[in-house]
Amino acid sequence: MKKLLLFAVAITSLVSCGKNDRGELVGSKGKRWYAEKPYGMALIPGGSFIMGKSDDDIAHTMNAPTRTVTVPSFYMDETEITNSEYRQFVEWVRDSVVRTKLADFAELNSMTEEEGGIGDYAYADQDTTDLNEYEKYMMNKAMMSDDYSGRRLNWDAELIWDREDYPDEYYTEIMVDSVYIPIEEAYNGQTTIKSDILKFRYSWMDIESAAKNKLKDKSRADFIKTEEVGIYPDTTVWVKDYEYAYNEPMHNEYFWHSAYDEYPVVGVTWKQAKAFCEWRFLYKNIFNTKNGIQRVNKFRLPTEAEWEYAARGGIESGTYPWGGPYTMNSTGCFMANFKPLRGDYAADQSLYTVEGDSFEANDFGLYNMAGNVAEWTNSTYDPQSYEYESTMSPNVIDSTNRKKVIRGGSWKDVAYMLQVSTRDWEYQDSARSYIGFRTVQDYMGTDVVYK
Q: Where does the signal sequence lie (predicted)?
């Protein structure tokens, strides 16, 4: 009788925990998901298309034979990432680095917020009264290992950039000795931040290697990689890319002056573009977590197939994003920013780059998929890749091959490079005055109409 009573109590307990499911298999429910179109992005409905050179291969590269492939739905930036958008990334990293330096100094000297001055920038978890048990544990673990990377920065105290308003000698020491370039390196009364301190660190998991090795004789940690990337764009590309040319104004002003806010960022390597994607993912999810919103999936660079599919805008076998085969419209105006005539860069009304939303968007709502700046993709360049890669979400990733695919042509290229099927490449650690990028995000779900 006692055993029967215990069994009955157990059954009652299980039923009470079932949230009125009446003992049925109703599934475990997570937070309700609302598909949110990311700001500044267009939804590209997935489908199949003929990828490759359907017209003449004028350059005889023989690396883009036609084949039918299929890509799933995804979001894509309507424009290339602009200077102002990339500066948001640079300034966030800058502020993080400065706050970390200030917090480390305050920690080493046992300075607290009550003391004022640099103490205002002490780690936010120094006051444990508002910390939960998990946060206390992680703080103690970090302090015992002398590793402050897990500590919470204080983002409430405003950073002071005007040297006349520095709060104390310690703050001054950090800014003068650790943040800004030495006085002897400054000129024209301008002091700038040391670009080499602007590094962004992130971790990622090598899922392909993990899947192939099936974690045999290895732990999960063996496949987690940590990257630390210097993220300041190389502004000297405007000089290095062109010998015997006067491009100093572009070197001096292009990235920082507000006149160029809406122009595409250049001088960014493939690794820097990937770091930007990781930061955008982090930045969005910091906001979502604080506001109780479900996390979004990653931002990333597009695959080569995704880029070509998006550039075509749904036009089968078109030469350019607007169809083709001409680069002028019916009124005699060029339809993209490129080098239409020998040596005449300004024939299309622009010498260098143009604003990100210049010219007409294609039928997917994407601007400058031809010309302006060539764009990094996530794909490794192999001239034979079309022969062996999958026809479903095709992509080649080879960490031993430093050649990465760039697409779309640029302001300094001839029309052939603007064709949606033309393949090109650059080394992943190279920065150029004519290469930028845009990001994508996978669409979660399958309710987008496929063609």
A: none
